[in-house]
TrEMBL record:
Pfam family, one: GntP_permease
Keywords: Membrane, Transmembrane, Transmembrane helix
Protein name per Swiss-Prot or TrEMBL: Permease
Transmembrane region(s): 28-45, 57-80, 126-148, 160-179, 210-227, 233-253, 274-294, 300-319, 326-344, 350-371, 383-411
InterPro entries the UniProt entry points to: Glcn_transporter
Record flagged with keyword Protein biosynthesis: no
Length: 412
């Protein structure tokens, strides 16, 4: 059985270069700072005003993001070192993929962990982990909500969790259907998968492996139920950031002591690069709203157009630099003024951005190469691989967009 490749360091890298072509090959964060400077000077902003606006915008939400990203990446680093499997390997891997993608805060890590147990269902796992990471709390929705400034609202937290589940289930099913069609078109039901005998694995105690996620979900649920207790440490642990810290501490406790330093080093590298992108994006948003009155950015009451605008804006970010995590980190601060100006429900805005980030799984995304070299190793035509992975992601995105618009029109 082909083993999954190791996780590429570019998964959440904020330094991924732009595609070669007419534009200079520069990291995303350099592009964002450069565009911010050009926007300020083209708009006639004075030098001192530009510097003070850039400074205030850059540091606006870095503390909140640090409290989310550090424990999230500790979880990802510790769990990437485990082989998560079960006696009912294939079905368990496929069914658990969305939860793993969300809990590990990384589709790459979730896929790499579940792939050895997935057998013929590797594409099911790939699309399931992708959907879970994008839509299930506390992964994509929490990161985007923090960028939009709505992460601390208990009501919004409950709505993010429920709507995320409601979107994930049909989108994960759509991914499974697409995977079946893609394999069938290849002329053989097992063309891209090993024989069943090779998928038998030893039971590695799934309950223990997923204990950090159980603690995370329990703390979040209890926090929504009881609210504030008046005890600072308990109140912190019942918030998403505190629950993530508690889950990360438990995951570290389950990790051998000689492997913890490597987990910390990986966490610091991934977090620091994303904080640079977040800071640059926040500075761009601050300069933009200083030059352009926020009410002029989008017409009031244009809910549907605002959703489509946020969706398309996120698509542009995702296509430009590939990484889903960096897309979440960069687009939310830029989109925040649009959400404020439109009067759009913040929960709807969060998922408009999350759904836009589905498009697309292309070669500039590390997830493409992880799945391509494992689940689609037998494919010899790169265009067909792009069609399979991008086609499934686009199908999930468009289906989710339709469901989100229907929910906005009829229920929210």
């Amino acid at each position: 059985m082909a083993q999954p490749t190791s996780l590429p360091s570019t998964n959440t890298s904020a330094t991924r270069a732009m595609p070669a072509g007419l534009l200079p090959d520069m990291p995303l964060v350099i592009w964002m700072v450069f565009v911010t400077m050009m926007l300020a000077f083209a708009g006639g902003m004075e030098t001192n005003t530009f510097i003070s606006t850039f400074n205030s915008g850059f540091g606006r939400a870095l503390g909140e993001f640090a409290l989310i990203l550090l424990p999230s990446f500790i979880l990802a680093a510790t769990l990437s070192r485990r082989e998560i499997s079960s006696p009912g390997a294939e079905k368990a891997a496929a069914i658990g993929a969305p939860a793993a993608g969300a809990g590990m805060i990384c589709p790459d890590t979730a896929y790499a962990a579940l792939s050895p147990a997935a057998g013929r269902r590797k594409l099911d796992v790939a699309f399931g982990a992708y959907a879970g990471f994008k839509l299930l709390y506390p992964a994509g929705p929490l990161i985007v909500a923090t960028g939009l400034g709505v992460a601390g609202d208990d009501t919004a937290t409950g709505e993010l969790m429920l709507l995320g589940i409601a979107l994930t289930i049909p989108l994960a099913i759509a991914g499974v259907i697409w995977a079946r069609l893609a394999v069938r078109q290849n002329g053989s039901s097992d063309a891209n998968s090993p024989a069943p005998a090779e998928t038998k694995v030893a039971d590695r105690n799934l309950l223990q492996s997923f204990a950090p996620f159980i603690v995370l979900a329990a703390l979040l649920g209890f926090g929504i139920w009881v609210g504030q207790t008046g005890v600072p440490i308990i109140d912190f642990l019942l918030l998403p950031k505190g629950a993530l810290v508690a889950a990360a501490v438990l995951a570290l406790a389950q990790t051998p002591s000689n492997a913890r330093r490597a987990c910390f080093d990986s966490t610091v590298r991934r977090t620091s690069s994303l904080l640079l992108v977040i800071g640059a994006a926040s500075a761009f948003g601050a300069v933009l709203t200083t030059l352009v009155p926020v009410d002029d950015l989008v017409p009031q009451g244009s809910g549907t157009f605002a959703v489509l605008g946020l969706f398309c804006l996120t698509v542009l970010f995702k296509l430009a630099q590939g990484s889903s995590m960096a897309t979440f980190a960069a687009v939310a601060p830029v989109a925040a003024p649009v959400v404020v100006a439109s009067g759009l429900d913040p929960v709807v805005a969060v998922f408009a951005i999350c759904l836009g980030s589905f498009i697309a799984i292309l070669p500039n995304d590390s997830y493409y190469w992880l799945v391509r070299r494992d689940a689609l190793e037998a494919e010899t035509r790169e265009l067909r691989v792009i069609g399979i992975l991008t086609g499934g992601a686009v199908l999930q995105a468009l289906l989710g967009l339709v469901i989100l618009l229907m929910a906005m029109w009829f229920w929210l």
